[in-house]
Design brief:
Layout (H helix, E strand, L loop, with lengths): L1 E4 L5 E6 L6 E4 L5 E4 L1 H11 L27
Antiparallel strand pairs: 1-2, 2-3, 3-4
C-alpha cells in the first residue's frame, strides 16, 4: 500500500491486495476506485518487492528494439 498526506491534511493512497487481481485508489476527496485489467496488473508488479528477481514471470517475451548512444556509451 502506498499512502500520502498533503500539507493541508488531505490524504490518499493506492494498493493491490495480491489475491483478487483488483487494485484500489483512495482519492483526496475520500472516494475509493477499484482498478482492474492492465492497470491492476501494473499495480501488482509495482507491489511486488521481488519483481526484479522474476521479471519474466510477468511477460511472455522481451526483445531489444534498438541500441542508442547516451553520453558516449551505447
Amino acid at each position: 500500500m502506498l499512502s500520502y498526506q498533503l500539507t493541508d491534511g488531505r490524504s490518499g493512497g493506492s494498493g493491490f491486495d495480491g489475491h483478487t487481481g483488483i487494485g484500489w485508489t483512495l482519492g483526496l476527496s475520500g472516494k475509493v476506485n477499484l482498478i482492474t485489467g492492465n492497470i491492476a496488473l501494473s499495480m501488482a508488479r509495482h507491489a511486488d518487492m521481488y519483481y526484479h528477481l522474476h521479471v519474466m514471470q510477468y511477460f511472455k517475451r522481451m526483445e531489444v528494439l534498438g541500441v542508442e548512444d547516451f553520453h558516449g556509451h551505447s
